[in-house]
Design goal:
The protein is of the alpha/beta class. It contains 11 helices and 7 strands. The chain folds into 2 domains: 176 residues, P-loop containing nucleotide triphosphate hydrolases (Rossmann fold), CATH 3.40.50.300; 31 residues, no CATH class. The N and C termini lie far apart (49 Å).
Length: 210
């Protein structure tokens, strides 16, 4: 069975691309076959950091968006899709026009949506829209990104959180990553794998505990 992992959150700056990069790194380290599609045409983090695995896809064009399912059907593997901010309307149009949910069920392709959140109103509100669109046809995992916020009380008390539980969704927490280390990784345009090699070589130093 192939699995398509969508990484989104609608709101800009919540850490979607970081989560996508972490998933790519996880697949590599576990020697899991995967293909990556970068729909964030403005920033293109996967194209930049994991170029050997990634190609661009344009969600505004239905033929281009169809590459997502084509990649899943090409082989039993994972397909990682990094979604840009403000992409819900294009995702919705593609899902409904191409009957993506029904087609995935028919072709035995598992769908997972990683909703990256800072716990704010806009993020929680979008999650409600997302769950209404996807229902039980796509597993939803909410990622509380502590690199953007440590206050998720609004999400925890929201109808969206209750609906997520009803649909069998999951919640996970991404701890805050070291800002200095992330700056160096991004500055040199490196994957997390390359950064780990740097750390072993002593190129990167841990933040002082003093």
């Amino acid at each position: 069975m192939s699995t398509v992992h969508f990484v989104g959150g609608e709101k800009g700056g919540v850490g979607k691309s970081v989560v996508a990069r972490l998933l790519a790194q996880l697949f590599i380290e576990r020697n899991l076959a995967f293909a990556a599609l970068d729909a964030d045409l403005s920033h293109g983090a996967l194209v930049r950091y994991y170029a050997d695995y990634t190609r661009a896809v344009d969600l505004t064009q239905l033929d281009s968006a169809d590459q997502i399912m084509d990649s899943a059907l090409a082989a039993d593997r994972r397909v990682l899709v990094d979604l840009p901010a403000q992409s819900h309307r294009f995702l919705r149009r593609w899902v409904e026009t191409a009957d993506v949910l029904g087609y995935a069920r028919e072709m035995n392709v598992r769908l997972v949506f990683w909703h990256v959140t800072d716990g704010g109103f806009d993020s929680v509100s979008h999650l409600e829209q997302l769950l209404a669109l996807l229902g039980t046809a796509m597993q939803c995992v909410v990622v509380k990104n502590q690199g953007r916020s440590h206050d998720f009380t609004q999400f925890d008390a929201s109808p969206a959180q209750q609906r997520l539980v009803e649909l069998g969704g999951q919640v996970t927490t991404l701890p805050e990553l070291d800002a200095a280390a992330m700056y160096k990784i991004d500055r040199f345009g490196s994957s997390f794998w390359a950064a780990s090699r740097w750390a072993l070589a002593g190129w990167m130093r841990p933040r002082s505990s003093k």
